[in-house]
Write a structure and sequence with these properties.
By secondary structure, the protein is α+β, with helices and mostly antiparallel strands. Helices cover about 35% and strands about 20% of the residues.
Length: about 450
């Protein structure tokens, strides 16, 4: 039995009021805030960390992928704007259209950046539209775009409680160094990744679990030498690579990838299973265990792996790589079959690779005044594992921001906003909301 205490009634100072309040400054929340502001809404963006970017920057998930359907780029809008602006300041790399091919030559050139079709089988995966970026480049461009748009940003503000009027949310309370602060708004976007706001407001949810990762970067790496070893001495490479993966205790096929910074590689590992991403005990365990594995592998590759003799740990991501925790139970729950069968919905407002996101899956059941955007949208655990990459989350965020701005300006429910109007405004902002299905979409009766 767990002991409990009862607190006395507490107060919070109202520090901001706006049309739209976005909780979470990661890729989805950032996109929602900019999209809402571009539609004329006043916007307050709340972020618990001292920077914007969420898992893209703080979690160092340094490849943007799952944004193509064959030769078609499906995730555009704010996501592509971010890619292009980072590229202009040498913080992002992506293959030109002429090199997005399935040849051995292009695979050898671009695979070490992680810019290949990771769902394709075989040893030579096609090179596709994807982008490798620098985490501080993301933070820099985020600050610029947010400032240009005129969003009111409040960092170092940890969401604590939803302010409710019956079943309608009217604001949020955050814990800060200055004390408890309230931010009030007509519409709230939950872009927390863990469904913090919707869960606090009483929305139903399921609790999923997936791998946790302590992502890190290595400096002093001769990536050209390492890649030559991979291709020219495949048997020796395979033996050493297998041992490195055994030491790190869980990784993707390529445990390191190039970054825009010379001599710096990104390691999206070690993966740890059986841990809950919102458990204090489990996340603490993951940090300790992850660092232990990292330094054990670094000792091995320094001594054994060509190209890594002078490597050193630059940093471990300040945020754990958490892929799945709470998942919304919304007006519609996306299934694995919906994702894998490319089901197109009549109320589609966002898309990823070749799958579609219905507006209903972003609306919390039984709650008014709130829309959800990000990896915690309404989907089954298996569906979310196949639709949680950063670009589709940004697409959801852009559509959520547009919907929020429209609802706030009209003083009406989010459920009353015509989907066609959301899509038209997203397209006017340069995005592809998926309202026009691709040729390989399945227009099933249940999608209507």
């Amino acid at each position: 039995m767990t002991d409990r205490i009862t607190e006395s009634a507490r107060e919070a100072t109202v520090v901001a009021r706006s049309d739209v309040v976005v909780v979470g400054g990661g890729p989805a929340g950032f996109s929602a805030a900019i999209a809402a502001r571009r539609e004329g809404a006043s916007v307050t963006l709340i972020e618990r960390y001292p920077y914007l970017g969420g898992l893209a920057a703080g979690g160092m998930v340094l490849v943007l992928d799952d944004m193509h359907n064959g030769d078609q780029i499906t995730t555009t809008g704010i996501c592509m704007e971010m890619i292009e602006r980072m590229a202009r300041v040498d913080a992002c790399v992506y293959p030109p259209e002429a090199e997005r091919l399935g040849t051995v030559e292009m695979h050898r050139k671009w695979a070490s950046w992680g810019l290949f079709d990771f769902r394709a089988g075989g040893k030579v995966q096609p090179i596709v539209m994807a982008a490798a970026f620098d985490p501080d480049g993301w933070k820099r461009v985020s600050n610029e775009m947010i400032s240009e748009t005129g969003v009111d940003v409040r960092l170092n503000s940890w969401f604590s409680r939803a302010v409710m009027d019956g079943n309608r949310i009217t604001g949020v309370i955050c814990e800060t160094k200055e004390g408890r602060q309230a931010i009030m708004g007509d519409v709230v976007v939950d872009a927390t990744g863990d469904l913090d706001v919707a869960a606090a407001a009483g929305s139903p949810f399921t609790h999923g679990s997936y791998m946790l990762t302590t992502v890190f970067r290595l400096g002093g790496v001769d990536a050209d030498t390492a890649e030559r070893f991979r291709w020219e001495e495949p048997e020796k490479f395979a033996a050493l690579d297998k041992q490195a993966k055994k030491i790190i205790g869980g990784s993707w096929d390529r445990w390191w990838l190039r970054t825009p910074l010379p001599g710096v590689v990104w390691c999206n590992c070690p993966h740890m299973v059986g841990l809950d991403g919102i458990s204090v005990a489990d996340t603490t365990k993951a940090d300790f265990e992850g660092r232990k594995r990292i330094y054990a592998m670094v000792d091995f590759i320094r001594a054994s792996m060509p190209g890594f003799a002078g490597c050193y740990v630059i940093d471990v991501a300040p945020q754990l790589g958490i892929r799945q925790t709470r998942l919304l139970v919304g007006d519609y729950v996306v299934t694995k079959e919906d994702v894998m069968d490319r089901v197109w919905f009549a109320d589609t407002v966002a898309r990823g690779r070749d799958y579609y996101t219905p507006y209903r899956s972003m609306l919390p059941k039984g709650i008014d005044g709130m829309v959800v955007a990000g990896r915690h949208y309404s989907a089954t655990e298996s569906a979310q594992k196949n639709s949680r990459e950063i670009p589709p989350c940004m697409a959801m965020g852009q559509s959520a921001g547009v919907a929020a701005a429209l609802a706030a300006s009209r003083g009406t429910s989010l459920r009353n906003i015509p989907v066609a109007e959301i899509c038209a405004k997203v397209r006017a902002q340069g995005g592809d909301p998926g309202d026009v299905p691709s040729a390989n979409a399945k227009l099933l009766e249940k999608a209507a």
